[in-house]
Amino acid sequence: MLRAVTAMPTPPRYEEARAAFRWEESARALGWRPGEPVSLGHTIVDRHAGADRPALRWRSRHGEGRTYTFDELARLTARFAAVLQAHGVRRGDRVASFMPRVPEMLIAMIGAWKAGAVYVPIFTGFGPDAIDFRLRHSGAAVICTHREHRARLPATLPPATRVVTVTGDDSPAPGSVAGALAPDIDFWRAMREAREDGTPATCRRDDPAVLLYTSGSTGAPKGVRIAANFLMAIHPHLVFGADLRSGDAFWPTGDPGWGYGLVCYMGALALGLPVHSHEAAPTAEYCLAQLRAQQITNLATTPTLLRSVMALGAAAGEGVRLRRASSCGEPLNAQVVRFLPGALERHGAGPVRLERIRPARRQPRPDRHGGEARLDGAAAARLHDGGGGRRRP
Question: What is the value of pTM for the model shown?
Answer without folding.
Answer: 0.84
